[in-house]
Design a protein that fits this description.
By secondary structure, the chain is mostly helical. It is 77% helix and 0% strand. Helix 3 packs antiparallel against helix 4 and helix 5 runs antiparallel to helix 6.
């Protein structure tokens, strides 16, 4: 696909894809060569995953080492982390790729991420004041995280069931 075709696709897909194309500089001639594009896509995936792990580790360390005073900073880091992941998934979905349909949603490589997440949640509950905004926020964070884990488990089981039914 040429840069002109990419730009036409972005216009057709709406403002979100257009804005993402500008942020990612997807119209650059660099993307015209297939191998460069594939390698860059893989490198970007590795970088995103590393960023997700490192920011979660940093937020976890903040609440355990900095206590309640570090809680707003840890929350800010988690929000930035979530925004990057959300934009990534949203962009893929907008272009017709549904990541939750992949049978490999539940994978062993997620165990360290889960351990970090549990460490963060326990740390947040440990240092959050019992009342007020941060107390409620901590409870909401735990409940939301449990909901996400349940969603991932159900999505993974459905995807595996579909794969088994389709003979894939």
């Amino acid at each position: 696909m040429t840069a002109a075709e990419d730009e036409e696709t972005m216009r057709r897909e709406g403002w979100f894809v257009t804005a993402a194309g500008v942020v990612g500089d997807l119209g650059h001639p660099f993307y015209d060569e297939e191998r460069q594009r594939d390698v860059w896509n893989e490198a970007s995936a590795v970088g995103l995953q590393l960023m997700l792990w490192l920011t979660l580790a940093a937020a976890t360390a903040m609440v355990w080492l900095g206590g309640a005073a570090a809680l707003p900073y840890a929350v800010a880091v988690v929000v930035v982390d979530g925004a990057a992941a959300g934009v990534t998934v949203g962009y893929a979905r907008r272009l017709g790729v549904r990541v939750e349909d992949v049978g490999g949603v539940l994978r062993l490589r997620l165990v360290p991420y889960g351990v970090l997440m549990v460490g963060l949640l326990v740390g947040v509950v440990r240092v959050a004041p019992p009342g007020g905004f941060f107390g409620g926020f901590a409870r909401g964070m735990v409940l939301g995280s449990v909901g996400v884990v349940l969603w991932m488990v159900v999505s993974g089981m459905r995807a595996r069931r579909r794969q088994g039914r389709d003979g894939s």
